[in-house]
Amino acid sequence: MGVMKGGGGERVEKLKYSRMKLWMIRATTSVLLWTCVVQLMAVGETWGPRVLKGWPSCFTHQDSSFSVIEDKVLSVPARVLPPKRVYKNNGYLMVSCNGGLNQMRAAICDMVTIARYLNVTLIVPELDKTSFWADPSEFQDIFDVDHFITSLRDEVRILKELPPRLKRRVETGTVYSMPPISWSDISYYRNQILPLIRKYKVLHLNRTDTRLANNGQPLDIQKLRCRVNFSALRFTSQIEDLGKRVIKLLRQNGPFIVLHLRYEMDMLAFSGCTQGCNNEEVEELTRMRYAYPWWKEKIINSDLKRKDGLCPLTPEETVLILRALDIENSYQIYIAAGEIYGGNRRMASLASAYPKLKGDFIGAIRPWVFSKSFIPDGSIRLSCFVGE
């Protein structure tokens, strides 16, 4: 019995071994076959279209439209991005722009140029939300932020926000913040601002209007400013499409002129130009000037400012200019601005000289905010138009 048991045990062991061996062979074979299938699929994607190019199509005429669409998609040239500029990063620059759209746009051009020549990383600028305009728009609401970043990648590195480890400094209020000196040369930023960036790693410039001098700068700096202004700062597609529609509507009614009078309350208060204003308006403008502590000039002689050529044209003077330029009264005149100070009273002479004057003189907020309404004669009424 013991011998029989022992012999049976050996046969069982051999049977188990043979089954395991068979299972291993099957598993290995399956892996090899799967590998071959994957390799053939990869080769088929590469060579299949070439091999099958001359074969008759299995698609019907209806299905062939898909191949036409596919050819059109493939024929669109891919966007070629400029190569990244490689440089040793000296730190991060945050900027808060101030003023109207025109001032902020110019400031962005300056800050990109400064970041480029200081070899720092620029964080997408913050737009003014607390000034006279009180507009909540972010950079990406106005400009194509991705185009802004990629189009300048060969000049400067731009990020939408700080890296997490540095972002916590902003949240805790420990970032060094300061206003740079107005109309400064680029050497000021190299000698005064760059050491601060190297020391603190992150520097926040909280006022950016007119902080880089316009004249006497190296040609490369001026070229970069122009590139930012005319190429990198592109409006969002929604704003561009709306602008095209407005232009189309304007052209339907014949020749037109769009005027930005720069005759808003904040402009007059800042400049101190009060020609044509009554005593109450002069007092109101003076109070506004004193209310803004960063407007350094408080006591202003309006007549002297005017003689120095530092005042905007009044609406009444604009009529004289248009007539001197032989602009016919049949032209459409559209007012592109915020609220004209003095309202319809100051616009009366312009409206009388040009009956096709259009524009809501009250309530416009920012030049990129369009508000239009149609009136019975088929024309269009705009609260604002193309910007400052």
Automatic annotation (TrEMBL):
Query: One GO biological process from the UniProt record?
Result: fucose metabolic process
Query: Which keywords does UniProt give here?
Result: Carbohydrate metabolism, Fucose metabolism, Glycoprotein, Glycosyltransferase, Membrane, Signal-anchor, Transferase, Transmembrane, Transmembrane helix
Entry-linked InterPro entries: FucosylTrfase_pln, GDP-Fuc_O-FucTrfase
Has the keyword Glycosyltransferase been applied to this entry?
yes
Q: How does it sit in the membrane?
A: Single-pass type II membrane protein
Citing just one GO molecular function, the answer is:
glycosyltransferase activity
Entries under Pfam families matching the protein = O-FucT
Q: Which CDD domains match?
A: O-FucT_plant (cd11299)
Q: What pathway, per the record?
A: Glycan metabolism
Give the UniProt subcellular location, in the record's own words: Membrane
* CC per GO annotation: cytoplasm; membrane
Q: Which family does it belong to?
A: Belongs to the glycosyltransferase GT106 family.
Supply the name of the protein.
Answer: O-fucosyltransferase family protein
Natural source organism: Gossypium raimondii
